[in-house]
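Batch manifest, entry 17 of 40.
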Amino acid sequence: MSTSISSSLLSIFKSGTSADDLLKSTEIIKKMMIGISYLDNKNPKSVMRLIFGDEVSHASLFFFMGEKKNSKTGVLVQYGKYEYIKNKKEVLGQDVKAIGYPYKEKGGLIFGEIEYNTYKKEFCTIAIIKPKITYHQITLSKFLEDVVKNKTWDYQSYSVIHQNCKDFVAEAIRVINPVYNKELIDINDNSFLEGKEDEEIIPKVILNQLKKNAEY
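Output type: structure tokens
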């Protein structure tokens, strides 16, 4: 995505919970969502999309935490070439406390608390994948600790070709190891993607990792 966190992106994060609170929480990740979206939401059938396919899409994660029933709020985690913003008031005019940077001033990987409906609207314009977490019990803090063991997901390490948002999501799938099947995909752009196979909807690096623990 973009080289900095825009005010519109920052504004999705809730201000009621701090990043430290999210990291200190002992709540287990109960549900995992993978959002696939167009980089240009206003023009999903653009020539760029038709030529380059999933190379111009963005992938991110959403987690429902703990045992709360009918929860409307969860945690967004995503990787991109995001610069660290020390004083968020300069961007929003208010302090958005929920945003966190695991690499601090090095930027890149970010997380924060947002509404699920906001996530679906902003980050799932192509599709949302809902693999099942069957046995792997892990907190947000432990997940972030494990996902950074093999690679560095900071601003400088980002590469459109070699290390991008889709590679991060694939690594997250490896860490959590959820169960996947074709029935767990909700397609949002029905007119454009109707009748398409998984391979035409889900970025290859993500689908390949999902298939390692698939049930058909």
